[in-house]
């Protein structure tokens, strides 16, 4: 990635996208009746907030002249044990809403992953490259999770998150 201004701008764009994703997932959790769906969206919201905070730390470090930071990665909480069943099939109107929420999320995650891969390719610094690659992998993971939900909800009318 060329001059520092371009680099800073690219990171700010990524931060905006992460905050938008965080807000989208938070709102989606409120709109989703199913406890599994609600939990999944809340965890995705927390995940994107972690991405935002890590990008903010990177931006601060670069602005202070301290260079690139190490990114350890973000994990989902494993609370599958504490989460009860609550998997009654979705009512038709909520199911359609939930499918469209998932579809938009899948598109956004694919875009985010592609953006981070592009940043990784444009970054010479090895820590920077590693951070962007890891962010891209995490967004890919989100895409897979959301796809699984979409297919299960679409075909069987049930959420599979946490099973």
Give the CA-CA distance, first to last residue. Answer: 41 Å
Rg (CA only) = 17 Å
Shape type: elongated
Report the oligomer.
Answer: single chain
CATH superfamily: Ferritin, core subunit, four-helix bundle
Class inferred from helices and paired strands: mainly alpha
The SSE order reads: HHHH
Q: How much strand?
A: under 5%
* Poorly predicted parts: 81-85
User: How is the CATH topology named?
Assistant: Ferritin
Q: Report the major sheet.
A: none
Look at the structure and give the CATH class. Mainly Alpha
List the total number of helices.
4
The overall pLDDT average reads 89
> How helical, in percent, are the residues?
over 70%
CATH architecture assignment: Up-down Bundle
Count of DSSP strands: 0
Count of the separate structural domains: 1
What does this structure look like?
- It is built from four helices and no strands.
- It has 163 residues and is mainly α.
- The protein has one domain: Ferritin.
- Residues 81-85 have low confidence and may be disordered.
Condensed summary:
With 163 residues, this protein is an all-alpha fold. Helices cover 73% and strands 0% of the residues.
SSE inventory with pairings:
Elements lengths: L3 H28 L3 H29 L28 H31 L3 H31 L7
Provide the descriptors you would attach to this structure in a database record.
mainly alpha; 163 residues
């Amino acid at each position: 990635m060329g001059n520092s201004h371009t680099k800073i701008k690219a990171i700010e764009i990524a931060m905006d996208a992460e905050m938008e994703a965080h807000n989208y997932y938070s709102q989606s959790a409120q709109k989703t009746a199913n406890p599994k769906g609600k939990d999944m969206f809340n965890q995705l919201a927390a995940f994107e907030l972690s991405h935002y905070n890590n990008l903010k730390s990177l931006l601060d470090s670069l602005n202070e002249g301290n260079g690139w930071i190490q990114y350890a990665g973000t994990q989902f909480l494993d609370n599958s044990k504490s989460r009860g069943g609550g998997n009654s099939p979705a009512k038709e109107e909520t199911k359609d809403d939930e499918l469209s929420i998932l579809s938009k999320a899948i598109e956004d995650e694919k875009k985010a992953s592609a953006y981070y891969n592009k940043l990784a390719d444009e970054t010479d610094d090895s820590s920077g490259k590693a951070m962007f690659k890891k962010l891209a992998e995490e967004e890919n993971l989100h895409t897979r999770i959301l796809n699984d939900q979409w297919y299960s909800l679409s075909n069987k009318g049930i959420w599979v998150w946490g099973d």
